[in-house]
Specification:
The protein is mainly alpha-helical. It contains 19 helices and no strands.
């Protein structure tokens, strides 16, 4: 009889990438002698107050008034663009940032803002070009390096992202988000030892940056430092008790410590929070297997497969549970299906258990 083995999946880490906020040029403009200019500046300053309060409709009205009176008022274009960005009117935001850039060649603020508008609209090539232009206009502006690094991370160019985060931190050594995302880039590259100190630095600079706790735990797990990982998961879940991923990953750490009861409890919490989370169902099946609760393992793996029919690891786990319940046909069918989905171990298990017939042929199962 094939000894039961379980596969644990869903060992994911959360990645939080935050771009710099939309730029609002908050300097007030001194009133001058011309009545028209005074009216424009009064409307502009009123718009700044509304923008800073996130009262976008009022801000838009004020900036429109300022520009109607003074059409060459570059800061009003920049801040009307920031207002349009807040309203998610990305095309209008790009147009206003472009006009501000024409009126103030070499200014980095409208270039940076336009990059954010392009990024929000999903125009990532244009956004990257704008961030690069903003860097050239002001190499000492760390968010321009950071913003481009985020884009490069998202398209999988991790070496270039690391370089940008490095440059952001050279400019601003207290940039918590740059430490966080440089760490996440190293984690994605398989360098957890490099990631850990950056997550710690990010938390020291910004204690409310809770994703850093979750991600530092992931780095610690990869290094086998399970006690450290569990401390971070506990600290995160004390503050955020509604994240199924966090419960699942803490369950994974407990599973790796052979605390199968604790792992099962965490997977159950994740399922309560998100009943469509196939990873949590499958991982609870793995814990139930370790606890020798084979019927429950079959039920959980079956639910994972209902949610995700191509889930090869769930077929493996259900196959092991069915084997232990002496449901040989069902076990063989599951292992063959796992092999079809890319888990070669399925063929090994089927061969070791003496399953007959070619891979891919599913015998009639004796359970439901």
């Amino acid at each position: 009889m094939l000894s039961t083995r379980t596969l644990l999946t869903g060992c994911l880490f959360a990645l939080s990438l935050r771009a710099a906020p939309a730029l609002a040029q908050v300097d007030s403009v001194r009133a001058r002698t011309l009545p028209g200019r005074q009216l424009a500046e009064k409307a502009y300053n009123a718009g700044l107050v509304s923008l800073q309060a996130h009262q976008y409709a009022a801000a838009l009205t004020s900036f429109n008034q300022a520009l109607a009176t003074k059409p060459d008022f570059a800061p009003a274009y920049t801040n009307r663009a920031a207002t349009q960005l807040g309203l998610k009117n990305y095309v209008a935001a790009v147009a206003d940032y472009t006009q501000a850039s024409r009126l103030k060649p070499g200014a980095f603020e409208p270039l940076m803002g336009r990059g954010q508008a392009h990024e929000a609209a999903g125009q990532l090539t244009e956004a990257e070009a704008d961030y690069t232009a903003a860097q050239l206009a002001n190499p000492a502006y760390a968010p321009a390096w950071y913003g481009r690094g985020v884009l490069r991370f998202e398209r999988g160019d991790y070496a270039a992202a690391l370089s940008d985060f490095d440059d952001a931190l050279k400019v601003d050594p207290k940039y918590a988000y740059a430490y966080h995302d440089r760490a996440s880039t190293n984690l994605r590259l398989g360098h957890p030892a490099e990631a850990l100190p950056d997550y710690t630095k990010a938390l020291a600079l910004e204690p409310t940056l809770l994703p850093a706790l979750l991600n530092r735990a992931a780095a610690a797990r990869r290094l086998g430092r399970l006690d450290d990982a569990l401390r971070d998961y506990d600290a995160y879940l004390e503050k955020v008790s509604t994240n199924p991923l966090a419960f699942t990953n803490r369950g994974n750490a407990r599973f790796e410590q052979q605390d199968y009861v604790g792992a099962r409890s965490d997977y159950a919490r994740a399922i309560v929070l998100d009943a469509s989370y196939a990873y949590a169902w499958n991982n609870r099946a793995a814990a139930e297997l370790k606890l020798q609760h084979y019927e429950q393992a079959v039920a959980d793996a079956t639910e994972a497969l209902r949610l995700r029919p191509d889930y090869a690891e769930a077929y493996l786990n259900r196959g092991h549970a069915r084997e232990m319940l002496r449901l040989a046909d069902g076990a063989c069918a599951d292992w063959r299906r796992a092999a079809e989905l890319g888990q070669a171990a399925g063929n090994d298990y089927a061969a070791a258990a003496g399953c007959g017939g070619p891979a891919g042929e599913a015998p009639t199962t004796t359970d439901k």
